[in-house]
Amino acid sequence: MPESHNHSDFDSIFLEDEPVDERDLDSRRGDGGRTRKKRKTGRNVLIVVLVLVLLAVLGIGVYAFYVANLWDSGSQGVTDEEAFGGDRPDPEGTGTNILLLGSDTRAEGDDLEDARGSRSDTIMVMHLPEDSSGVQIMSIPRDAWVEVEGHGQAKINAAMSYGGLSLATSTISDFIGAPIHHVAVIDFEGFQALTDSLGGVDVESEQAFSVDGHTFDEGTNHLNGEEALAFVRARKQFADGDLQRVRNQQAFLTGIMNEIISADTLSNPNKVAGMVRDFSPYMTVDSGLSASKIASMAFGMRDIRSGDIEFFSAPVSGLGTSSDGQSYLTIDEGELGKVRDAFKNDTVDEYAAAAESQHL
């Protein structure tokens, strides 16, 4: 059974198993009183990579001051204790690792302080190399079978349930064999808001499929927020389930990046400001991801283009069943050793360039 512990407002985002009441979180979101619809448990959330802000939004000259104020006033923050269980690690010359989390459900209970943690269903680690030469993003399947400190072997997404955000962070840090320096999460409404603020996104689908009343063709699909959400959530339609969902998420994020760093977006101040205004109220980040910090990282990576962003996946080797009947994904330990060496030595770019998109 999950341990009881004190939970922050951040932990409530991940509630999955307990009934909760609706509530309006406007005052917590810092959105200037803008009206938002109440959401019920069971509505979706999905992480959209913070690199969207790092590489494009805040590195645009003097206009960045206004955009930075939008970010700082709109986004939520969590303390280092809540995010890391102590002090936030400092990069030591081996690049910066940002943990990106999302969940298939979002809680809006009346008493957020009493909320219990749930499972983080979308997990990515973004690596920013020390020389700012590119960005590498590793997807970790939620059913990967790993060691969770104090709880033995479990699915990696159970760490949030067992010990909140700090245990999830430490579990994934142990998995990659390197520190996690920052944490970010986005909820369902922000996912749609970002996509629609961009006027939709062109996404390449590996295969044709239908889900939730939406049909996607093999090849290029122009998706609005609702369509994009259906695209990245789908898994029962595929023979390899969650693994294809990971590939679809990576395809969507590639489309997002292509749109954001396009001249049409970055040369349009109103579009940039609207994107940050609509997006930031749904972001929760650690205390170190202020606009000034993001802007400094963005400046260092100002020459990066979409071709410098590489996606790969954690090394899955097969399927397994636990003693209590859970189906899980086994990890290729030999290949994981290479992943850990890459994070340790700041050579994730070399590993990503040679890695298969999926290992199963």
Automatic annotation (TrEMBL):
InterPro entries: LytR/CpsA/Psr_CW_biosynth, LytR_CpsA_psr. The keyword Membrane applies. The chain crosses the membrane at residues 44-66. Residues 119-261 form the Cell envelope-related transcriptional attenuator domain. Keywords: Membrane, Transmembrane, Transmembrane helix. It comes from the Bacteria. Belongs to the LytR/CpsA/Psr (LCP) family. NCBIfam families: lytR_cpsA_psr (TIGR00350). This is LCP family protein.
